[in-house]
Amino acid sequence: MDEAAKKTALRGITYGLYVIGVRDEAGEVNAFTGNWLTQTSFNPPLVVLAAKEGTSSQEAIEKTGVFAVSVLATGQKDIATQFFRPAHRVGNKFGELEFELGAETGCPVLKDALSYFECRVRQSIGGGDHRVYLAEVVGAGVFREGKPLAMAETGFYYGG
Q1: 154 by DSSP, 3-state: which?
Q2: What is the pTM (predicted TM-score) of this model?
Q3: Predicted local confidence at residue 119, as pLDDT
Q4: CA separation for the pair 153, 6 (Å, rounded)
Q5: Is there a smaller number of Cβ atoms within 10 Å at the N or the C end of the chain?
Q6: What span, in angstroms and rounded, lies between the C-alpha atoms of 81 and 76?
């Protein structure tokens, strides 16, 4: 296979950038930037998320079976970038960003996001360097209207 062609072709898949909030069994919260996320069903509302194997966030999803997705707005590249690195919680903040805990999952959602949805894992599939979760949307909220952040806007490349 032509590796350069493969990378170019796979990077042509369009993605958004989201902050995925998780909690561990002790109730401690964390978050990471995710882009491998898509809706797969209307009824029931299902999404698929891929999380990198072996990370503390992936392990939290695996153990608790829940996560929340904060939908970032166009222009919020700095927030997406912040969650590429481990974020330490101080009270109800990740750095300067305030969050609240989702009513259905107890996972953090960013108050500065456009909207959010909370998910309960139905199935987990391994086999590569990421674990794939099929999850049902069990809660949602809207903070404000706007256009969601797309990976293409940031100049980031992840895939291939």
Answers
A1: helix
A2: 0.92
A3: 98
A4: 22
A5: N
A6: 9
Tell me phi and psi for residue 2, to 5 degrees.
Answer: -75, 110
* Residues belonging to the chain: 160
Query: In 3D, which of 125, 144, 140, 158 has the Cα closest to residue 48?
Result: 125
| Rounded Cα distance, 107 and 93, in Å | 13
Write down the number of H helices and E strands in the chain.
Answer: 4, 11
Instruction: Tokens for 62, please give them.
Output: 């695996």
Amino acid identity, residue 33? T
**What is the longest distance spanned by two Cα atoms in the chain?**
49
Tokens 């904060």 belong to residue? 70
Q: Give average pLDDT by consecutive 10-residue segment, the chain, 160 residues.
A: 84 87 92 93 96 94 98 96 77 85 97 97 94 98 96 72
Q: Spell out the SS3 assignment of 41-65.
A: ECCCCEEEEEEECCCHHHHHHHHHC
Cα distance between residue 73 and residue 112, in whole Å: 9
Distance CA 108, CA 80 (A): 15
Say which CATH class 16-153 falls into: mainly beta
Residue 2 CA to its chain's centroid (Å):
31
How many C-beta atoms lie closer than 10 Å to residue 97's C-beta? 20
H-run or E-run covering 77: helix 77-82
